[in-house]
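Please supply some protein, with fold tokens.
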Amino acid sequence: MRKGRQMAFPFSFSVPDIAGSAILLELFAQVHVPSDPVNDSHMPDFKFSRLAKAFTAACFFVLMGGWSHAQDAFPDFSLTVEATPAVAVENATTYRFYVNMMEAGDRMSAVFGNSAKPLVVEVPEGAFNAAENGSWNAVGLTPALFPMFPELQDDTYATVGLTGPASLSELDNAADPQMAVDDAQPGVQAFFTSDGDDELRADSEIGTVWFVLNDASNALPDESMRVLIMQVTTTGSVSGTVNFQVLPEGSLGLGTDEVRTVSFSGEGVFYDADFGPVFGCTDPAACNYNELASDDDGSCLQFDVCGVCDGPGLAEGTCDCDGNVLDAVGVCGGGCLDDVDGDGVCDSEDGCLDVDACNYLEPNTTECDFCSCAEGVAEGTGLVLETFATDVEGGLTCYRLFLEADAPGDVLTAVLGKAGAPLVITTTGTWFQNDGSPYDSHLTFGDGGQELALLGDPTTWTAFEGGAGLLFNDEVGGGWTLDGVQGVSADDQSRIWLGQLTTAGDVFVQFQAQMLAGGTPS
């Protein structure tokens, strides 16, 4: 009998004065310490006595029926499944199963399965088992044999922290794992010894366990804080459920142990659903923030501009969350229907927009329905293009453009053009544009130096500033007038200066002039 060493797997007793515990410990010690570990560790002739079965069943019932330890004390014991190409088995993958520890002093105690917590590993394509290793564990995997039998490295086996025999591990106090198997389920060991076996299943009432005693050094985590518990090589998939028991650092055994049931599929990190991290959104600013989440899963969502969690935002073409659209002058939900001249003032407030009417641009709030004086266009109005300077700026000619009114005092209110009556100021060359030159091409409205109000498409004006011709011949039209002033009067020669044009080419000018005969500008 091995006194002073606990067997802390789930169906052992850790308090020696509990009735029957000494008998049970002695039975397990007798059964699980083979005289020849290399040849006998798989224990093909192992049998439970009736007394052992009775105690084992009783222990499973008591211990598995309700755990008394705090379930949130160690929430992060988990299972890592790593996949690497097999060394010698063609087209196969070797999966290694590790239990992840929390502290350097945590000890791996046992892997088990019974009717309350089934242990299942399924490999539909079968598990590879090397003929040279007749054991269920890694006792037969001697590195010296690998050059001659490389397939030994791909062998399927159960373990606790060892990839070969304990005697060759270079660990002090290392111990090969032991296994207790219900003889009603001999297929448990067959999974680790019979080549092509496709299922490990331990779900009987008595159950199966492989374990090491709590003084075995290979029960402690490696430098990566984990302990290897199984290797499986197969040409297909692997999935199932594993139960394991850990003795946390400082644990005295039963009642202070940690048991996890972890389901897995392929490689990855897997958790007991009752103990693992809570995945969710950890961003407090997100609309689906989960204050209980411990691990962010990338699911965080944001409020859209309308305050809807992960909402679509503004519908296409709308300007607010109520579905309104911009009106003609850019007011969200506004009532303006038209701004034909593009001046940012609704046509219903802008006045008459008919360039042939004598009240063009005069204040009017009646939607331009009262345009008048269509018959009052001034007679005798014309254009004068005078040569102002020649051979300037490298051989160019500078012209000055004047509108000639019918009489002194006539008032020009706008220069305009639209479809059917276009505004054209063009040249067979390009317009010379240089703000720093006295011969710069530019437009004016009389010689008062007042700010111009440019009407129509802004890109047309930008192109003119770049040397292109000026053309307004669409339904919207365009032109220029004085900003904030209704017009300018013709001088004593009945002329109004409209611009300076410098070019090397021929000049063509055409537009409509809005005139008030004998009018007075304001």
About this structure: The longest strand covers residues 382-392. The radius of gyration is 48 Å. The chain is about 10% helix and 25% strand.
